[in-house]
Amino acid sequence: MQPTEHEDDLEQLVRSFWEVARFHAKLTHMPSYFGPTVIASVPPPVWSLGSTPAEADAALAGLLDGTATTLRTPAEEYAASGEPVPEEGVLGIVTDGRGRPGALVVTSSVERDGDEVVEHLRVLYRSS
Fold first, then answer.
1. Cα(83)–Cα(53) distance, integer angstroms
2. What is the pLDDT of residues 103-112, one digit of tens each?
3. CB under 8 Å to 18, separation ≥6 — which residues?
4. What does DSSP assign to residue 48?
5. Cβ pair 31, 23 in contact under 8 A
6. Cα–Cα nearest to 24, from 102, 125, 128
């Protein structure tokens, strides 16, 4: 299936965001004779929070203003979906409800709290 024009536009927005965000997050700080590092070259996963556009917008706003930087997910969801448990140091691009990139985040810590996996995010760069 071919991507739609809207999907192509969003992909271009993500690429443009990544180019700026990786510079501002200082992921490209090595001298040029070393060449680019993998972390600075390969865009991180792109995802949104929430199951509706309104929830994604609200969650991104909370992430950006610092009031919602912790994610709690039942551990069984990771097992059921086959998704890996988050790891400290992993980058991600969080989008708004329309799929536009809003923040480059890093998982600053991960812990188990009973039956939940608690992931703490830190914003490295926000879109302007």
1. 22
2. 999 999 999 9
3. 43, 44, 93, 101, 104
4. -
5. no
6. 125
